[in-house]
């Protein structure tokens, strides 16, 4: 018998894929890949991101639906209106939310810079390049995406607070609070071990903090 597929919506950038053998689907990753390829979907997405808005469900679904045949968890699935990402096709097992002050989140997101050719991401606060605004490996300039600029980040956070309410349903939802990964991770990892029945035995991981 095939092992049960674990379907998990997680509302913070995780360290879980490598520990539990999961496929990580990130809205940001798919948007960036499509932007590099200059696809029709990326043109639709730019209408929102360049104005500090969250990309709506139907656009995100176009980006992600082809990946959902595999074991997955998804970062930042925001609403319950997208049928391909919720229970009409896939039964979601868990919804995980990391609660941090929005001022802290705004500051963190506005410090993100990327190297477009290879999608390397830097954060000026905790993962800065050796030379400011220069990629460590290629020596090429880093860029800040339009939706990472301070005004756009503030608008995204305001909208995010509204549209995430539908997926914050009791029963599936579990919160973790904090701002430092090293302090939060042991609690998160222990929690997922208690849900180990959701994972294929061959894919379970050991923990190194």
TrEMBL record:
Keywords (A to Z) from UniProt: Kinase, Nucleotide-binding, Signal, Transferase
InterPro entries: Adenylat/UMP-CMP_kin, Adenylate_kinase_lid-dom, P-loop_NTPase
Protein name as it appears in the record: Adenylate kinase active site lid domain-containing protein
HAMAP family: Adenylate_kinase_Adk
The UniProt record lists the keyword rRNA processing: no
Entry annotated with the keyword Cell division: no
Record GO terms (molecular function): AMP kinase activity; ATP binding
All residue ranges annotated as the Adenylate kinase active site lid domain in the record: 113-145
Coiled coil: none
Organism: Macaca mulatta
Signal peptide positions on this chain: 1-17
Pfam families noted in UniProt: ADK, ADK_lid
Top-rank lineage group of the source organism: Eukaryota
């Amino acid at each position: 018998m095939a092992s049960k597929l674990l379907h998990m919506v997680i509302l913070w950038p995780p360290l879980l894929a490598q520990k539990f053998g999961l496929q990580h689907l990130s809205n940001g990753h798919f948007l960036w890949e499509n932007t590099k390829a200059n696809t029709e979907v990326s043109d639709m997405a730019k209408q929102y991101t360049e104005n500090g808005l969250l990309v709506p469900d139907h656009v995100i679904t176009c980006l992600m639906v082809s990946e959902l045949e595999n074991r997955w968890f998804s970062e930042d699935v925001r609403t319950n209106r997208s049928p391909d990402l919720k229970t009409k096709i896939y039964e979601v097992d868990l919804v995980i939310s990391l609660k941090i002050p929005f001022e802290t989140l705004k500051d963190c997101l506005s410090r993100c810079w990327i190297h477009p050719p290879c999608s390397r991401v830097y954060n000026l606060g905790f993962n800065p390049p050796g030379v400011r605004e220069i990629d460590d490996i290629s020596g090429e300039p880093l860029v800040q995406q339009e939706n990472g600029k301070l005004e756009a980040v503030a608008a995204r956070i305001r909208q995010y607070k509204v549209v995430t309410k539908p997926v914050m349903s009791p029963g599936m939802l579990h919160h973790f609070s904090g701002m430092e990964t090293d302090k939060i991770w042991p609690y998160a990892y222990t929690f997922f071990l208690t849900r180990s029945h959701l994972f294929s035995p061959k894919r379970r991981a050991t923990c190194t903090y």
